[in-house]
Design brief:
Blueprint lengths: L5 H27 L13 H48 L11 H17 L2 E2 L2 E2 L14 H6 L7 H13 L7 E4 L5 E6 L9 E7 L5 E6 L4 E5 L10 E7 L5 E9 L8 E3 L4 H37 L8 E3 L10 E3 L23 E5 L2 E4 L7 H15 L9 H16 L8 H37 L3 H26 L3 H4 L1
Parallel strand pairs: 9-10
Antiparallel strand pairs: 1-2, 3-4, 4-7, 5-8, 6-7, 8-9, 11-12, 13-14
Helix pairs in contact: 1-10, 2-3, 2-8, 2-9, 3-7, 5-6, 6-7, 6-8, 7-8
C-alpha cells in the first residue's frame, strides 16, 4: 500500500496547477502580444484603454469617410477637366464652319461633344450620381436625343430654337422692325411693338450725310429716323444704324452714299433729289436689315434660346416663347415639364451646390463637396455647344455661310468664358479647397492613429522577450515541481522504512 502525504502534497499539487495556468497565460501572451483577453486583466488602466480604443475607432471612421470623399472629388475633377477641354476643342473646331449638306463639320462634332458631356455629368460614385445635388439616386441629365429632339410629345431644344427664331424674326423677316418714310425726305425705323422681348432693339443712329438730321431712338415703341432735308448727300458720306441683339451683342448697319447704279453691298444710290435718295436709302435699309436678321440675328437668337432652355434653377425654370403664334409673340413663359423636355433632372434647390453634400472629416471640420450639373460653369458650356449643334445652316441658303460666321464669332468669345461668368476651372478650384482640407485631416489622422496605437500598445502589449524569459524560468520551476511531486506520490511503507 502507498502512504498519503496529506496537506503538503495538496499544496504541491495546487502550486503545480497554478504554474500550469501561468504557463498557459504566458503562452497566450507570447502568441497574441497582449497582456489580457479582457479589460479586467489590464488593471487600473482599463478605463484609459477603453478611451483610447474609442478615439481610434472614431479616427478610422473619419478615414473611411475621407476615402469616399476622395473618390467623388477625383471623379469630379476628371469630369470637370474634360468638360472644359470639350469646350476648348469645340472653340477650335469653329474654323471649320464651312457649310456642306446642311451642317458644318463643327456642328456634327458639337452634337457628339454634347453627348459626351451629358454622359460625363451622369457619372456615379458607387450608387450615387455626383452631379445631381441632393438627389443622388437620380441621373443629373436627360439623354442627348431627348434634350435635342424631344420625346413623347415634349419639345426638345431644337424646337425651342425654331420657335425663338420665329419670334425674333417676326412675320416680315426684319427682326421685328418696321421701316417707313414719315416724309418724302426721311427714313424711319422702329420696333414693331412696345415691350417685346424679341428681335432687334434700337440702340443708336448717326449720320455724316450733308444737310441731314437724325432723331431717336425714342418713343413707345422706340423709333429713330434720318431726314435728308433738301440737300442730296455727297458720295462717301455714311449713315449708321446700331441695334442690340437678343444675346447681348450689338450690330451696326453702315450705308454709304454712292453715285453707282446699282449700288454695291452696304451702299445706297444718290438720286436726282433728296426725296429720291431717301427712297433709295429706305430700300437698301430694308434689304440690309433682312440680311442682318438672317445671319447675325439668327445666330443671336439661337444663343438666347439656349440660355432660355438651359439656364434653370429653383427660382428660374426653363423658358420658351409664349405662343403660338410665335412670329408676333412678345414674351417668354415658364416651360411646362409636360410639354417641354427639362434637361437637368437632378435636385435644383435654393441652397448652394457645394452644400448638397457634406461630411465631417475631423472632430471639428466639415467639408462641403456637392455638385449640380446646372451650375453656371457647366451649363454655360452645354448651352453654347447645344446652340452650335441646333442652328440651321442649309447648304442651299445663300446666307448660310454668313450665318455660320456670325455663330462662330459669338461662340469663340462665349467658349472662352467671359469675365464674370463661372467656369469649370472655378468649380475645380472650389473643390480643390475641399480636397486640401480632406488631405490635411487625413494626415492628422495618420499621426493621431500612430500616437494612440503606440500608447495603447504600451498599456495592453507585452515584451515577447520578457515573456519568453518568464516561460523558460517557469518551465524550470514546473519541471522541478513535477519531479518532486512525482517522488512524493511514489512513496510506500517499504520506502518509508
Amino acid at each position: 500500500m502507498t502512504i498519503g502525504i496529506g496537506t503538503r502534497s495538496l499544496l504541491l499539487t495546487q502550486s503545480l496547477v497554478g504554474m500550469r495556468t501561468e504557463m498557459a497565460d504566458l503562452q497566450r501572451q507570447l502568441a497574441t502580444g497582449k497582456k489580457s483577453d479582457d479589460y479586467a486583466g489590464i488593471g487600473l488602466n482599463r478605463g484609459l484603454t477603453v478611451s483610447l480604443r474609442s478615439q481610434l475607432a472614431a479616427t478610422e471612421g473619419y478615414n473611411d469617410t475621407i476615402t469616399n470623399i476622395n473618390v467623388r472629388l477625383n471623379l469630379a475633377e476628371k469630369t470637370l477637366a474634360r468638360v472644359g477641354t470639350i469646350g476648348t476643342e469645340t472653340k477650335n473646331s469653329l474654323s471649320q464652319m464651312t457649310t456642306a449638306a446642311g451642317q458644318t463639320t463643327a456642328q456634327a462634332s458639337a452634337r457628339s461633344a454634347l453627348g459626351e458631356m451629358l454622359g460625363l455629368l451622369n457619372a456615379q460614385a458607387g450608387d450615387r450620381y455626383i452631379f445631381s445635388g441632393l438627389a443622388g439616386d437620380t441621373p443629373a441629365a436627360a439623354s442627348l436625343n431627348a434634350i435635342m429632339d424631344g420625346d413623347a410629345g415634349r419639345a426638345g431644344f431644337t424646337q425651342i430654337v425654331g420657335e425663338r427664331l420665329q419670334a425674333d424674326m417676326g412675320a416680315s423677316g426684319l427682326g421685328r422692325l418696321v421701316v417707313s418714310s414719315p416724309s418724302a425726305t426721311s427714313v424711319s425705323i422702329g420696333e414693331d411693338v412696345a415691350g417685346s422681348a424679341f428681335g432687334f432693339k434700337l440702340n443708336a443712329i448717326s449720320s455724316t450725310l450733308s444737310g441731314s438730321s437724325v432723331s431717336g431712338p425714342s418713343g413707345t415703341p422706340p423709333q429713330m429716323a434720318v431726314d435728308l432735308g433738301s440737300v442730296n448727300p455727297a458720295a462717301g458720306e455714311v449713315v449708321r444704324f446700331t441695334f442690340d441683339l437678343p444675346d447681348g451683342s450689338k450690330e451696326t448697319i453702315s450705308l454709304t452714299a454712292t453715285t453707282k447704279v446699282p449700288p454695291g453691298k452696304g451702299e445706297f444710290s444718290i438720286g436726282q433729289d433728296s426725296a429720291a435718295t431717301a427712297s433709295n436709302l429706305q430700300a437698301q435699309l430694308n434689304a440690309s436689315i433682312g440680311q442682318l436678321a438672317r445671319t447675325s440675328l439668327t445666330a443671336a437668337s439661337a444663343l438666347a434660346a439656349a440660355n432660355d432652355f438651359f439656364n434653370m434653377d429653383a427660382a428660374n425654370p426653363p423658358r420658351r416663347v409664349d405662343g403660338p403664334p410665335f412670329d408676333s409673340a412678345t414674351g417668354l413663359v415658364a416651360a411646362d415639364a409636360s410639354n417641354t423636355v427639362v434637361w437637368y433632372t437632378g435636385e435644383a434647390g435654393e441652397q448652394s451646390a457645394r452644400s448638397t453634400a457634406a461630411a465631417r472629416v475631423d472632430q471639428s471640420i466639415t467639408v462641403n463637396y456637392g455638385m449640380r450639373a446646372n451650375e453656371e460653369g457647366i451649363r454655360w458650356q452645354l448651352q453654347n455647344i447645344a446652340a452650335l449643334a441646333a442652328v440651321s445652316l442649309p447648304a442651299s441658303d445663300a446666307d448660310s455661310q454668313d450665318r455660320a460666321s456670325a455663330m462662330a464669332s459669338r461662340l469663340r468669345g462665349a467658349l472662352d468664358v467671359p469675365q464674370g461668368v463661372q467656369s469649370t476651372a472655378d468649380i475645380r478650384t472650389e473643390l480643390a479647397g475641399a480636397a486640401k482640407s480632406v488631405d490635411a485631416a487625413k494626415q492628422r489622422h495618420q499621426y493621431t492613429k500612430a500616437t494612440l496605437s503606440d500608447f495603447l500598445e504600451s498599456i495592453e502589449g507585452v515584451s515577447k522577450e520578457e515573456v519568453g524569459a518568464k516561460i523558460l524560468a517557469l518551465q524550470t520551476n514546473l519541471q522541478a515541481s513535477m519531479q518532486t511531486t512525482a517522488r512524493l506520490f511514489q512513496m510506500s511503507i517499504l520506502n518509508y522504512l
